C-alpha cells in the first residue's frame, strides 16, 4: 500500500451527470479459457485507427491459452462498433469503463497506443485490478512533434483535423511479411477529429482510483513512440518500461507478438497486488 | 497491514480470544473493520475499505445483498412497480456504471441485479456473514468496539468480536413512521403502512385512502387509481409534483445543468415554477392545495402520473385526516369518506437498536442523530454511519464518498495521528451542520441534503485529510 498522500480526487462531476455520454453499440471480441483458473479478465483497448481485430489476430487466444479470460473492445467509430461522428475522448473513456464494468470480475486494462491514453482516463472512473500501457501515446505537444518527425506527410493533415496516416515502417518491424502488413494497413480506420485534437491538447488524466499497479512496455525502435516518451510514461507510474528491441509500434501484430504478451502475463502472475 | 479476510470467509473463531464480556469470550479481530448491513451503503463500504487495505467483516441479517432493493427481504420498502426516481448518472456508483442499455429510470429488479454484479465484480461476498444480525455495538478502551451478533431471528448463541472500527449501514427506510389518530382502533376497515405494500393486487377493487405524498404515497395513489374502485389521496399540505422528464430530458439532469452553470437557488426555483406552470399547470383547479413552500423546500417528488390521474378523476385529492370512526374517516374539511383500506405512506424513521443513542449524539431521545456530514459522531473517531441521507439525487454516489472518507480517516489515524486529531476536531465542530437550502420542518427532512452542497463539503473534507 502506498503512503497517505494522494492526488486530489474530484468528486463533483456536474457535467458528467447533466450530460451523460450517449450510448453507442460496442463490439467486444473475446477468447475465454475452457477452465476458469481464477485469473483476472483482461480488457484490451486498441489505439486510434485500430479496432478489437488487432488483438483478435494473436493476443486474445494466447492470453486465454494461459488461463486469462481475454476481451478486446472497439472504441466507438472503430472496428465493428457503431459509427460515432463527433466522438470525444470522454466518449471513448466511457466505452472502456462500460466494457470493463460488464465483465464478471475486476479487470486488468491494457491500452495500446492512444488506447493507453484512453485507459489512463478510464482508470479515474474504474478501479482496475492493474493496468498495462503498451507503446503508449499519452498525448500533448510531444506526441505531435514525435509523429511529425517520424512521418511528416502522414501526420501534418491530422494536426488540422484530417486523417492521420501511418505507414508500414512505423507500425511493424522488418520481418512481418508484406501480405500481413498490407492486410492490417487496409483495416485501419481513424479516430474522430475532436478526439484527435483532444489527444494533442493533452489534458492530463485525473488520478487513478483504487491504486492499480501499472506496467509500461514498448519498443525502442517504435517509430511512433520514441524511447524518451516510453521512459516518461513509465516514470509517471514510478517504474521503468519493459523494452522489446526491433519491434514496430503495433507489438500485438508484429512477428514477435508473443514476447511482449508473455512478459505482460508473467508480470500479472507475479504482481504482488495493489501498490 | 494485516487484512484478515483476504483469503476465504472471515472466521472470528480462529483468532485468539481476548478478554471476555459478561463472562463470554470476545474474539479479537485486530485491525479489521466491521460493516453492518450489505445494502448499497454497506457494499460500497466493504469495497472501499478493502481497497484502502483494511480487513473487513460485514454482517447482514438477510441472506442476500441489496438491502431495500431486494423486495423479497422482509423489511424491504420496495413494491412491484418501483423504479428509480433519480436517473442513472446520478444513481450509479461513481466507479461502476450501470449498463448503457438500461433505461433512464431502471426497475427495482435491475437495481438489485446491479448490486449483485457489484458484489461479484469486486468479490465482496467473501467478507459478508449472511443471516447474521448485529444486536449490540459497545465502545471499549482505545476507540475499539465490541460487536455482538446472532443468527437472524434470535436463533443460536450470541458471539462477540472486537473490532478496530465500525461502519453502520443499516438503512433508514424500513422502520415505519405511523401517525396516531383518534378512533383508529375502532376502525373496521383494513389499515397498513406502505412498508407492507408489495403488489397492486392488494388494492384491486377496493375503496382506498392513501395518506402522505412522499414518493411512496404518490406511487401508491397512482396504483390505486389503476387498480382500486376508488382512491382518495390525503395530504396535509400542497406539493410540487414534478414530472420525471422536463424539456425532453430526465428532470434531474436539467437541474444539474443549471447547477453546473452556478445558477442561484432563487433563479432555479423561479425557472422550475415557470416550467411546472407551463407543463403541469395550476393544480389548485383540481382541488389540490397550493404548495405552502417553494420548490426544493420539501423532498422532491418525481412522478409524472399523479397529476394525470387526478385530471382523469381517478384520484380524489383530500385534506388531512381528522379522525377515524368504526365505519369511515372524517377529514379536516368536514367531509366524511368510507374507505375499506387505508395505507399510511407516511415515511420512515431511523433506528439504531444496537447502539446507545448517546453515541450518535441523540441526547434528547428524539431518535435524531447529531453527526458531521450525517456520518461522523463527535468523540468516536472509529465509528461512522453511511447512507443516512435523503438526497435530491441518488444515494449510492454519496454513500461511496462517505465510505472513502471514512477509510482515509482511519488510515490517517494510523499513519499521521496529528492530522487525524485535526479531523476529529473538525467532526466535533461540524456536528449537526446542514447541507441543503431551507426545508419545511418535518422529521422526513432530518437528513435532507442537496447533492452538490453535500459533495462540496465531502470534497473539502477529503482535501483537508490529504493536506491540500
Ligand atoms: C420505495 C423507495 C424507493 C427508493 N428509490 C430511490 C431512488 O430512486 N434512488 C435512490 O438513490 N434512493 C432511493 N431510495 C432510498 C433507499 O433507501 C436507498 O436507495 C438505499 O436502499 C439505501 O441503502 P442502504 O444500504 O443505506 O440501506 P438498505 O438498503 O436499507 O440496507 C441496509 C441493510 O442492512 C441490513 N441490516 C439492518 N440492520 C441490521 C443489523 N442489525 N444487523 C445486520 N444487518 C442489518 C438490512 O438487512 C439491509 O440489508 C428509495 C427508498 C424507498 C423506500
Ligand atoms: N424510487 C422511487 O420511486 C421512490 C418511491 C418511494 C420512495 N422513495 C424514496 O424513499 C424515501 C421515503 O419516501 P416516503 O414517501 O416513503 O416517505 P416521506 O418522503 O417521508 O413522505 C412521507 C409523507 O407522509 C406525510 N406524513 C408524514 N407524517 C404524517 C402525519 N402524521 N400525518 C399526515 N401526513 C404525514 C408527509 O407529509 P409532510 O411533508 O407534511 O411531512 C409526506 O407527505 C424518500 O427518499 C423517497 O424519495 C423513492
UniProtKB/TrEMBL annotation, chain A:
Gene Ontology MF annotations: hydrolase activity
Keyword Hydrolase: yes
Source domain of life: Bacteria
Keyword annotations of the record: Hydrolase
Signal peptide positions on this chain: none
Residue intervals of the AB hydrolase-1 domain: 42-254
PANTHER family registered for this protein in UniProt: ALPHA_BETA-HYDROLASES SUPERFAMILY PROTEIN, RE40534P-RELATED
Protein name as it appears in the record: Alpha/beta fold hydrolase
TrEMBL record, chain B:
Classification via InterPro entries: FAD/NAD-bd_sf, Flavin_mOase, Flavin_mOase-like, FMO-like
Annotated stretches, region: Disordered: 1-30
Pfam families registered for this protein in UniProt: FMO-like (PF00743)
Coiled coil ranges: none
Keyword Plastid: no
Bias type Basic and acidic residues, positions: 1-12, 21-30
Highest taxon in the source lineage: Bacteria
Keywords of this entry: FAD, Flavoprotein, NADP, Oxidoreductase
UniProt-listed SUPFAM superfamilies: FAD/NAD(P)-binding domain
Keyword Flavoprotein: yes
PANTHER family: DIMETHYLANILINE MONOOXYGENASE
Record family assignment: Belongs to the FMO family.
Protein name as catalogued: NAD(P)-binding domain-containing protein
Species, as recorded: Micromonospora antibiotica
Amino acid at each position: 500500500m502506498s503512503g497517505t498522500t494522494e492526488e486530489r480526487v474530484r468528486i463533483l462531476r456536474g457535467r458528467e451527470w447533466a450530460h451523460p455520454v450517449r450510448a453507442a453499440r460496442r463490439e467486444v471480441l473475446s477468447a475465454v479459457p475452457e477452465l476458469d483458473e481464477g485469473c483476472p479478465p483482461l480488457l484490451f483497448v486498441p489505439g486510434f485507427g485500430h479496432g478489437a481485430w488487432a488483438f483478435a489476430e494473436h493476443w486474445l487466444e494466447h492470453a486465454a491459452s494461459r488461463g486469462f479470460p481475454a476481451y478486446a473492445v472497439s472504441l466507438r467509430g472503430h472496428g465493428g462498433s457503431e459509427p460515432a461522428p463527433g466522438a470525444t475522448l470522454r466518449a471513448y473513456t466511457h466505452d472502456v469503463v462500460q466494457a470493463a464494468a460488464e465483465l464478471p470480475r475486476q479487470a486488468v486494462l491494457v491500452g495500446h497506443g492512444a488506447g493507453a491514453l484512453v485507459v489512463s482516463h478510464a482508470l479515474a472512473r474504474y478501479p482496475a485490478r492493474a493496468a498495462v500501457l503498451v507503446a503508449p501515446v499519452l498525448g500533448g505537444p510531444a506526441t505531435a512533434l514525435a509523429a511529425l518527425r517520424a512521418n511528416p506527410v502522414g501526420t501534418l493533415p491530422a494536426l488540422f483535423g484530417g486523417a492521420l496516416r501511418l505507414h508500414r515502417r512505423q507500425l511493424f518491424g522488418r520481418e512481418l511479411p508484406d501480405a500481413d502488413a498490407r492486410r492490417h494497413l487496409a483495416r485501419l480506420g481513424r479516430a474522430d477529429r475532436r478526439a484527435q485534437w483532444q489527444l494533442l491538447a493533452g489534458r492530463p488524466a485525473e488520478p487513478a482510483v483504487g491504486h492499480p499497479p501499472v506496467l509500461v512496455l514498448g519498443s525502442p525502435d517504435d517509430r511512433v513512440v520514441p524511447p524518451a516518451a516510453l521512459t516518461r510514461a513509465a516514470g509517471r507510474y514510478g517504474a521503468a518500461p519493459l523494452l522489446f528491441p526491433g519491434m514496430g509500434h503495433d507489438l500485438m501484430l508484429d512477428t514477435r507478438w508473443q514476447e511482449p504478451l508473455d512478459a505482460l502475463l508473467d508480470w500479472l502472475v507475479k504482481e504482488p497486488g495493489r501498490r | 497491514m494485516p487484512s484478515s479476510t483476504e483469503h476465504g470467509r472471515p472466521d472470528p473463531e480462529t483468532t485468539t480470544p481476548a478478554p471476555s464480556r459478561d463472562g463470554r469470550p470476545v474474539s479479537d479481530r485486530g485491525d479489521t473493520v466491521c460493516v453492518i448491513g450489505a445494502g448499497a451503503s454497506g457494499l460500497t463500504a466493504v469495497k472501499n475499505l478493502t481497497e484502502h487495505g483494511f480487513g473487513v467483516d460485514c454482517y447482514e441479517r438477510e441472506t442476500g445483498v441489496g438491502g431495500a432493493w431486494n423486495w423479497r427481504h422482509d423489511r424491504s420498502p420496495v413494491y412491484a412497480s418501483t423504479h428509480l426516481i433519480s436517473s442513472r448518472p446520478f444513481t450509479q456508483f461513481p466507479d461502476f456504471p450501470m449498463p448503457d442499455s438500461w433505461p433512464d429510470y431502471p426497475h427495482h429488479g435491475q437495481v438489485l441485479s446491479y448490486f449483485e454484479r457489484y458484489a461479484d465484480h469486486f468479490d465482496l461476498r467473501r467478507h459478508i456473514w449472511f443471516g447474521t444480525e448485529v444486536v449490540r455495538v459497545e465502545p471499549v478502551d482505545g476507540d475499539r468496539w465490541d460487536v455482538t451478533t446472532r443468527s437472524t431471528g434470535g436463533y443460536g448463541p450470541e458471539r462477540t468480536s472486537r473490532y478496530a472500527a465500525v461502519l453502520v449501514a443499516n438503512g433508514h427506510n424500513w422502520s415505519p413512521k405511523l401517525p396516531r389518530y383518534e378512533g383508529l382502533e375502532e376502525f373496521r376497515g383494513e389499515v397498513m403502512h406502505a412498508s407492507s405494500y408489495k403488489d397492486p393486487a392488494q388494492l384491486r377493487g377496493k375503496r382506498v385512502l392513501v395518506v402522505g405524498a412522499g414518493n411512496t404515497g404518490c406511487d401508491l395513489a397512482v396504483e390505486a387509481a389503476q387498480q382500486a374502485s376508488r382512491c382518495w389521496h390525503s395530504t396535509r399540505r400542497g406539493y410540487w409534483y414534478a414530472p420525471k422528464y422536463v424539456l425532453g430530458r430526465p428532470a434531474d439532469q436539467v437541474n444539474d445543468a443549471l447547477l453546473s452553470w452556478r445558477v442561484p437557488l432563487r433563479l432555479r426555483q423561479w425557472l422550475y415554477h415557470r416550467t411546472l406552470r407551463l407543463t403541469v399547470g395550476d393544480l389548485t383547479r383540481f382541488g389540490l392545495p397550493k404548495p405552502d413552500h417553494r420548490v426544493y423546500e420539501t423532498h422532491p417528488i418525481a412522478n409524472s402520473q399523479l397529476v394525470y390521474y387526478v385530471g382523469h378523476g381517478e384520484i380524489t385529492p383530500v385534506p388531512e385526516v381528522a379522525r377515524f370512526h368504526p365505519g369511515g374517516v372524517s377529514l379536516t374539511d368536514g367531509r366524511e369518506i368510507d374507505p375499506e383500506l387505508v395505507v399510511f405512506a407516511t415515511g420512515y424513521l431511523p433506528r439504531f437498536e444496537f447502539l446507545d443513542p448517546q453515541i450518535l449524539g441523540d441526547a434528547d431521545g428524539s431518535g435524531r442523530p447529531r453527526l458531521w456530514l450525517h456520518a461522523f459522531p463527535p468523540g468516536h473517531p472509529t465509528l461512522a454511519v453511511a447512507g443516512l441521507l435523503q438526497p435530491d439525487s441518488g444515494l449510492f454516489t454519496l454513500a461511496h464518498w462517505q465510505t472513502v472518507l471514512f477509510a482515509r480517516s482511519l488510515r490517517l489515524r494510523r499513519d499521521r495521528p496529528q492530522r487525524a486529531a485535526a479531523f476529529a476536531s473538525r467532526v466535533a465542530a461540524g456536528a449537526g451542520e446542514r447541507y441543503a437550502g431551507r426545508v419545511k420542518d418535518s422529521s422526513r427532512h432530518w437528513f435532507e441534503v442537496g447533492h452538490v452542497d453535500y459533495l462540496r463539503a465531502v470534497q473539502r473534507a477529503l482535501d483537508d485529510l490529504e493536506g491540500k
